[in-house]
User: What shape does this take?
Amino acid sequence: MSRQRIYSQKNNSVVISAIDGTWSRTIVDYGEGDDVIAWEPQAERVTVMEGLDRAALSVSSGTAGKVTIKLKPTSPDCGFLNKLYNQNRTNPQLVNISIVDGVKENIRLNRAVVNIEGSSSGGTTMQIRSFIFIGEEFLVDEDEGSI
Assistant: This one.
């Protein structure tokens, strides 16, 4: 899929699936804000060492990544993601995550497990639930064409 030239918030989606392909689920009912779906590599791919006379570049072969999803506490997917988290203790479930962003760019995190960022409730407003996935292989869509 090639990316669009116009951003649309409605294009954003997250699908979580078992690595064996036995199930998949499209996540719904995101929280508010600009960071409800976020992704990043776990390690810097390129670092620079500044020497006295010149700089040297180091390119990492690390492929791990992180995806954070923020949901309203009323989202039906909170229970599903809590179940995945609870299973990590006794029967870890590796998942693949596919994200389509606002310009229809594909982002993938393969062989990931879920963690939960601390949440609280009982205040005067709902608190967003944050689910963090750490995975072995983080890939971002490439444009068609040659280098």
Summary: Residues 77-87 form the longest helix (11 residues).
